[in-house]
Amino acid sequence: MSICIGKIADGSHGKVAVDHYHLYPEDLDLMKDLRVNSYRFSLSWARILPHGRFGDVNMEGIDHYNRMINAILKKGRMEPFITLTHYDIPQELELRYGSWLDPQVREDFVHYAEICFRHFGNRVKFWTTFNEPNVQVILGYRKGTYPPSRCSMTFANCTRGGSDIEPLVAAHNIIRSHLAAVNLYQKKFQEDQRGKIGIVMNTIWFEPVSNSLADRLAAERAQAFYLTWFLDPVVFGRYPREMKDILGEDLPKFTKDDLKSSKNGLDFIGINQYISRYAKDCLHTTCELGQGGSRAEGFVYSNALKDGLPLGEPTGVNWFNVYPQGMEDMLMYATERYRNIPLYVTENGFGENNTGVLLNDYRRVKFMSNYLDALKRAMRKGADVRGYFTWSLLDNFEWISGYTIRFGMYHVDFDTLERTPRLSASWYKNFIFNHIAQSKDNEDA
């Protein structure tokens, strides 16, 4: 993938990061001590196929992931939960044809997926195709802050791109790639391997900034231009009505084969849930480009403030407010819209600015407790939530934020790579222990 030269907050890079590549056996020991029963991680497409379908499989990459998967299973009661791609793509494909802007990327993704299913599928029971493709498309092709850093000049200072059309094209090719990979898995691998396959979406719960009809409709448009943009085609075979009403013929069309595939487009939905926002109508009021005032944004402005007061508790991280009710509301929204398709909370966690070691992370503990309570409320209301993954086990390289934000239950010294448990690690271990004990009591009752 193209790198974001000069865009990392602290000027750092992720070449070593926490060196999980070499230290994963020790990190798996930490997970076993916590008593987690599944480890969600992403494969690197570029590590397995450095040149896409235009080159050979890198068997060193295959061997590395085989060792990891085997090590996970040897821990007992721990399952690998694998994502095929987490924003990355072989640079070869970007250089040859512009990666997600060209329909032929679907052929490359299916080729890659088949290699993974063949090499790892006999031991992997949980697959997801993409991690947060909505974030990837919005930041990579509309705002230009993530690779490949494309946007219109009215949105940001990009040297190339088109914020109105390119995100729609990239999203369409990602959706078609997802459908093709799921179709391949279901036809050739699922019966023998007995696994499940889904997709992971970033979610934001949008609250109308007022009770006006315009702002209530704006909150619906905000979901359409963020979440259901991807999930409606996968589940229903069509883009959401709110997008069609605004974008019209600019929305790409699906083929008959795509529509056939969408009838079984996933087995579950992964929900990454961190934040909530207010949604303000920009159809009937004037908003600036990039601040809700464009067709590409659905004519919705979203932020965390209402009358100068934040939605939830500020954290010191500028994009991150704590609002547990958003977890419950988001899970119920997905449950009701997608007919009770099984859900996994694939990411949820608390980030703090990098200010020293901070092992007594009581704010993270409070966050986890409150969000898990919200998750339980949703389950009591009928949400079919099958699992929960916290982000994150370790502090790590956080994309364009570099090492300036820490999400880990274990502090990492980035010079020595030493892992030190925080209070949240002890709390989570006790939470899991009590949950297991309660489950056994219920079984014995």
TrEMBL record:
Localization, per the record, is:
Vacuole
According to the UniProt record, what class of enzyme is this?
Answer: hydrolase
Asked if the Swiss-Prot or TrEMBL record annotates the protein with the keyword Hydrolase, the reply is: yes
GO BP terms: namely:
carbohydrate metabolic process
A single MF term (Gene Ontology)? thioglucosidase activity
**Which reaction(s) are listed as its catalytic activity?**
Hydrolysis of terminal, non-reducing beta-D-glucosyl residues with release of beta-D-glucose; a thioglucoside + H2O = a sugar + a thiol
EC number(s) for this protein?
3.2.1.147, 3.2.1.21
Q: Which residues form a coiled coil?
A: none
Which Pfam families does this entry report, sorted A to Z? Glyco_hydro_1 (PF00232)
Q: Which keywords has UniProt assigned to this entry?
A: Glycosidase, Hydrolase, Vacuole
Residues of the active site: E347 (nucleophile)
Its assembly, as annotated, is:
Homodimer.
Name by which UniProt lists this protein: Sinigrinase
- Name the source organism: Brassica campestris
